[in-house]
Amino acid sequence: MASMRDIKRRKTSIQGTQQITKAMKLVSTVKLQRARAGAERSQTYFDCMYDTVNNILSRVGHLEHKYLVPGASPKKAVIVITSNRGLAGGYNSNVAKLITGQEDWKTEDVVVYAIGNKGREILERKGYTVKESYPEVIEEPAYAEAMLLSQKLLTSFAAGEIGEIYLAYTHFKNTVSHEPKLLKLLPVEYDADAKAPAEGADALMNFEPEDVEALDMIIPKYISSLIYGALMEAAASENGARMQAMDNATSNAEDMISDLSLKYNRARQGSITQELTEIIAGAEAL
Hints:
With 286 residues, the protein is α/β, with parallel strands linked by helices. 58% of the residues lie in helices and 13% in strands. Helix 1 (4-60) runs antiparallel to helix 5 (211-285).
């Protein structure tokens, strides 16, 4: 059995850790409220843009456009959104598994654009090529950053350097529920059975200017909005995951402290009993 000194030292150490986890939980809670508000504000635009593009493409039928057909290159560009810090449970590893779990993807054909250091570190260890890293973007997500990344990827896609573009992030459902998602950005996929507006649903869609020119303007905005929406959801999910992890750590520390207190009291009681026994035995010997 550990000595009273060892038990007390360990209890003090755990109490110090518990104070840190409590503080981190409070910080994550405050950050979550702000990130959640941002994600909710952007969600309306995000959903509207997705529905609009889906509706347009479902009504124009077959259309030869550079953003609607796969590129000739076997390379797949993947935007991976994770955090710069750990202590968030399985938040970062779950996003990385979206890429490593694709059995039909060859490691050498995947080009990673990492937003957040943790995803970059995990995928580099797995042998994936990280072409560019943007750790600062996830700290303060901005639409301008999403637009710049979108333009860079669209240029590479148009030049034939990459054949497909994907987005790996964590979808924010609520404070305690977050879902890792892998979304294909290019070539644009849409639901051909999507429900069209009731009025004029069967009418042909006319474009002004021409359809190719219209899609050249719409799809880059569509891609930028998806990336920005994913950044906002990922920021909220990260803080929600960290808040949960720190809450669990605090609860576990409380259980360990209670257990150590019980062991300390038992050891103290045993020590007192032994001392009394020795005193009584000494008195009887006299």
